[in-house]
Amino acid sequence: xxxxxxxxxxxxxxxxxxxxxxxxxxxxxxxxxxxxxxxxxxxxxxxxxxxxxxxxxxxxxxxxxxxxxxxxxxxxxxxxxxxxxxxxxxxxxxxxxxxxxxxxxxxxxxxxxxxxxxxxxxxxxxxxxxxxxxxxxxxxxxxxxxxxxxxxx
Length: 153
Ligand SMILES: Cc1cc2nc3c(=O)[nH]c(=O)nc-3n(C[C@H](O)[C@H](O)[C@H](O)COP(=O)(O)O)c2cc1C
Hints:
By secondary structure, this protein is of the alpha/beta class. 37% of the residues lie in helices and 17% in strands. It has one domain: Flavodoxin domain (Rossmann fold).
């Protein structure tokens, strides 16, 4: 098996916890996508910001250094559902990276909206990659066996 990395974006910690579990199971590094300007702490303010970013198809600047994926074969990519898609910083990251020949295994956590239309957005951003269908990450939060099963499959 080639090298893997877990890359995640998380505001309130749910995706972060699963990402860290995934890295432990896969025995690989874990790296967070952070924005240059942090999101506000207030929930309503984050939602307002996220809606604006989706409406304008924004690509928020990321905080350096970006996760180094140069020599990995497999990217396990975790993020929350924001406004029925992935947070725009995840697209900034994907579009800034050379993903050719790499496998991208996404999972999404959500508040009931499931995957939304994230698969369509990821497909546009993951040029040259072997992009797998986004997994529903919510069950992974309470059941680590389900996370393990997904990673093995
Ligand atoms: C800005 C914002 C937008 C959200 N939009 C949705 C949504 O459209 N559908 C949904 O099911 N959950 C939505 N949620 C809930 C998050 O997806 C959910 O709480 C997620 O597990 C949080 O992950 P985190 O703790 O890693 O940040 C939204 C949360 C935020 C902060």
